[in-house]
Amino acid sequence: MADQHDRLNPDQLKKMRTQDGFIAALDQSGGSTPKALQLYGVGEDAYSNDEEMFARVHEMRCRIVESPAFGGDRILGAILFENTLDGDIAGRNSAEYLWQEKNVVPFLKVDKGLADEVDGVQVMKPMPDLAALLDKANARKVFGTKMRSVIKCANPAGITQVVEQQFQVGRQICAAGLVPIIEPEVDIHSPDKAESEAVLAEQLLAQLDGLEDQTVMLKLTLPEQTNLYARHIAHANVTRVVALSGGYSREEANRRLAENHGMVASFSRALTEGLSAQQSDDEFNGMLDASIEAICKASRT
To answer: What angle do CA 234, 20, 245 make, to 5 degrees?
Structure first.
């Protein structure tokens, strides 16, 4: 679809395709924000409503992004929650600040959460306002989007439903001139994780082969079978394949990532592990720098 490629920023596309580094996932939403804040040392007594909660998590994200450790030399892109996109970092719009000041490509989380589990999976809830959100993303010069589903067990019918929904919405995102990050997460606690991943791998290839010249990204759980996604990484319609940490510790996530050649990280909790609101700027920046370097090293393999 020429429209997508015509509208993409060529410098951002080249960076996402070719540069070493990883994507910082800074898109904790309503359900995951309290836990993220608690791990950061901000308890639930520090806010009394959602507005105050999101203000506190925005402060955390700003501290991360404004840190001298956070820059485009090691970080390819950052995934933002809509509240973050609507806010400012250092007095500038968040997406503009990321690209203009940090040389980091901005992405926007667009899904509205997960539906209840059926057939061993959780598909995405309906997104009736997606077109308007994509217009906003384009107005803010966002490069791409991210949307997440979850696979709990190796049910072929459920996995098919997840992948078909992801690509159906993905085509709409491509048509809007953005690059979708398609994220069918396989739960790391799944009793048949390897089988789920084998089914998923084939379903993804079938959908990728059905694309015309649209380009997408894939965000996948670190697999039990090393290099399971090599064909996906090499696929002409894939800009990049990134890995979620999925609840693994940073050490375990980095170990698994280093074994899967061509995959790069898109970590959230594993990136912020060890950071605390109580740390001095030197302590905070030192911890973040060490975290970024370790994740970047694992992403280079």
So the answer is: 80
**Residues composing the chain:** 301
Around Cβ 65, how many Cβ atoms within 10 Å? 23
> What CATH number has the domain bearing residue 27?
3.20.20.70
Please tell me the total count of domains within the chain: 1
Residue 219's Cβ-side half-sphere holds a number of Cα atoms within 13 Å equal to 29
**Which residues touch 11 (CB under 8 Å, ≥6 apart)?**
none
Do 58 and 26 meet the contact criterion of CB atoms below 8 Å apart?
no
Using one digit for the tens of pLDDT, what is the confidence trace for 142-189? 999 999 999 999 999 999 999 999 999 999 999 999 999 999 999 999
pTM, full prediction: 0.95
Q: Which residues are catalytic?
A: 183, 219
Side chain identity, residue 85: L
User: What Å distances lie between residue 35 and 42, 65, 273, CA to CA?
Assistant: 9, 20, 12
Residue with tokens 């791409």: 144
Residue range(s) defining the domain that contains residue 91: 2-299
CB 204 within 8 A of CB 233: no
Q: How far is residue 16's CA from residue 13's CA, in Å, rounded to a whole number?
A: 5
